[in-house]
Amino acid sequence: MSYVLGLTGSIGMGKSTTAQMFADLGCANWDADAAVHRLYAKGGAAVSAIQTQFPDAVEAGAVSRAALKRIIASDETALARIEAIVHPLVAKDRAAFLASLDTDIAVLDIPLLFEGGYDAMVDGTVCVTAPKDVQRTRVLERDTMTEAQFYALLAKQMPDAEKRVRATWIIETDTLEHARAQVQAIIAAIRQEISDA
């Protein structure tokens, strides 16, 4: 029986880098965003259902995220209809991952961990955080988002301060070395908890 750890953090906080640190130290990782990418890829489980509802969203046998964004912007019912297709498939993917585990610690990388209530299905939670100016710099350096888009996205997410209050552990990603040390400490604490049980 693995200890299941939910990992979350707002955009630009260093969640992907931190998730990789857990993987490098022997934890099994499941990434919600990667699961959606698999479902949307050619031959993915979501493609035919999305195509039935939104024929314009499928290009060359795969779901186009850009097309979905346009559809969501122009149809206020679209997001709920897409989620009704995708969420059960993501849950199935996550359940298959959890059923196949052979490690003592599993990490579920879920951006909307608290917003979606997924914290109820894990044994502990980690919130990855960084100072606001560092977060803003990281996001805008990616060149995939404007400042206006960044703030619009932040407005839709639970505030970082609230995530930190709700989390079992907090990882500050001010430097790679500091983040890695915190990951190591959390893994050690979990392994101690498992051995004490």
Explain this structure:
With 197 residues, this protein is of the alpha/beta class. The protein has two domains: 1-27 and 105-197, Rossmann fold; 33-102, no CATH class. It has helices at 15-24, 32-40, 47-53, 65-74, 78-99, 132-141, 147-156, 160-166, 176-196; strands spanning 3-8, 28-31, 58-59, 62-63, 105-109, 124-129, 169-172. The strands form two sheets. A five-stranded parallel beta sheet has the order 2-5-1-6-7, sandwiched between helices. The protein has a two-stranded antiparallel ribbon with strand order 3-4. Helix 2 (32-40) packs across helix 5. The longest helix has 22 residues, at 78-99. The protein is globular and about 55 Å long. The termini are close together.
Main β sheet profile: 5 strands, parallel
Task: Say what oligomer this is.
Answer: single chain
Number of domains: 2
The name of the CATH topology of the largest domain is Rossmann fold
Mean pLDDT: 93
Order of helices and strands: EHEHHEEHHEEHHHEH
Q: So what's the CATH class of the largest domain?
A: Alpha Beta
Our measurement of the CA-to-CA distance between the termini, rounded to an integer number of angstroms, reads 12 Å
Given the C-alpha coordinates, what overall shape results? globular
Q: What is the beta-strand fraction? A: 5-15%
| Class from helix and strand fractions | alpha/beta
User: Cα-atom Rg, whole angstroms?
Assistant: 18 Å
Give me the count of strands.
7
Question: Strand order of the main beta sheet, please?
Answer: 2-5-1-6-7
In CATH, the architecture of the largest domain is 3-Layer(aba) Sandwich
